[in-house]
Design goal:
This protein has a domain of about 240 residues: FAD/NAD(P)-binding domain, CATH 3.50.50.60. About 40% of the residues lie in helices and about 25% in strands. A hairpin with a 2-residue loop joins β10 and β11. The longest helix is centred in the last third of the chain and has 30 residues. The protein is globular, with a radius of gyration of 21 Å. The termini are far apart.
């Protein structure tokens, strides 16, 4: 018989966070800092992250500041790195003034996902993380939430579903929600150690194919490659051989990076996105991160939006007199913003993955003619985000 567990004692606000990824850890940390008794339930027996790079944009770094770990993350920032978009031969189509971007919005941090994961995990209070706790069912009962998982049944005042694009909680409590949809392209990711520190990053666009390069602070390089492909396809000769076949004649340093890569380090995933939901909230349950708004990675905002979600949710729970009104405000704030960003990311992916030669020629010409400041202006609505002001919200709701 499953063991029943209660999170929190009499008069103490309690929360269950489902999912031990970056969004789940951020939510757990944000709630714990606000005085909640929190348990983070993760299906895996051990907590960890895959070996890939992650872009933290200024909005995400501000969220991490609100969580008290911004300085640790900011140490990973890269300065004076050239970035932008090139074609497959290496010609710059669009350059990003990284110094102006930093002056206007703050630094962009390129960090290994495992490093960010460790920073968040270390900041959590002892006893918050519960591994080997795969969630099989979630219910709303008598003004509380109930979750059945690998270790038994837990109940709490609040449920935060941060369990990814295939969220079990979303399936349980949002049964009418649309299923994720394939974006039409697949991606390979790998971290490479060539023994040299690259001075330029950014993306290179071809016809139905792309390559992204991001130097990491530890001297390694994060490489991702994208190609139009049928869903579920895999390479019979190995994924690294496929990368070398597709991209081995692109501009330097792409061939050198692929030559230095290890087959075991290459990860391949088809790209899916979640269609817009009617609500991120159901009673005392809230969706967060990819469980709420999984988007294509073309703006590099997936993790950043999860961090924004976590900080916003905790602030609203402090500012509002009850959980339901706080979650209603969370839905009003987060759903329009993430929908806007998801739409932009989708459009960029469509254009970047064009294959027809006349269309790609027009695209490349348009990029060359676009003034640099216009690119930064277009990012203002995304990168200019700041955490909600708790005192203002309390005054407004009071």
């Amino acid at each position: 018989m499953a063991k029943s567990q209660h999170v929190g004692g009499a008069g103490e606000r309690s929360a269950l966070v489902v999912g031990g990824g970056i969004g789940g850890l951020a939510a757990g940390l944000a709630l714990a800092r606000s005085g909640w008794r929190v348990k983070v339930l993760e299906r895996a027996a051990a907590f960890g992250e895959v070996g890939a790079g992650l872009s933290l944009w200024p909005n995400g770094v501000r969220a991490l500041d609100a969580l008290g770990v911004g300085d640790q993350v900011r140490e990973q920032a890269l300065v004076e790195t050239r970035a932008g978009i090139r074609n497959r031969s290496g010609r710059w189509l669009s350059r990003t003034d990284t110094q102006e971007l930093a002056d206007r919005f703050g630094p962009v941090v390129m960090i290994h996902r495992a490093r960010l994961f460790d920073i968040l995990r270390t900041a959590l209070p002892a006893g918050v993380l519960c591994g080997d706790s795969a969630v099989t069912r979630a219910d709303l009962r008598g003004g509380r939430v109930e979750v059945e998982h690998g270790r038994g049944v837990s109940r709490a005042d609040l449920l935060v579903a941060a369990d990814g694009i295939g969220s079990t909680v979303r399936h349980s409590l949002w049964p009418q929600a649309p299923a994720p949809r394939y974006a039409g392209y697949t991606t390979w990711r790998v971290v490479v150690d060539t023994g040299e520190r690259l001075s330029a990053g950014g993306e290179s666009w071809g016809r139905g194919e792309r390559v992204g390069i991001a130097p990491l602070a530890d001297g390694r390089t994060y490489l991702f490659c994208v190609a139009n492909a049928p869903e579920g396809q895999r390479s019979p000769g190995g994924e690294l051989a496929e990368l070398r076949r597709r991209f081995g004649r692109w501009h330097d340093p792409i061939p050198r990076l692929l030559a230095a890569a290890d087959e075991e380090a290459v990860m391949r995933h088809d790209i899916h996105a979640l269609p817009p939901l009617a609500s991120f909230v159901n009673g005392r349950a809230a969706l967060l991160g990819d469980a709420a708004h999984a988007m294509t990675p073309n703006l590099g905002q997936g993790a950043n939006q999860a961090l924004e979600d976590a900080v916003t949710l905790a602030v609203l729970l402090e500012a509002h007199p009850d959980v339901e009104s706080a979650l209603s405000a969370y839905d009003r704030l987060r759903r329009p913003r993430t929908r806007l960003i998801a739409r932009r990311s989708h459009r960029i992916g469509v254009v970047a993955q064009w294959h027809w030669a006349p269309a790609t020629a027009l695209r490349d010409l348009t990029l060359r003619m676009m003034p640099g400041p216009a690119v930064l202006d277009a990012l203002t609505a995304i990168l200019g985000w700041r955490p909600p002001d708790r005192e203002d919200l309390i005054a407004h709701t009071g």
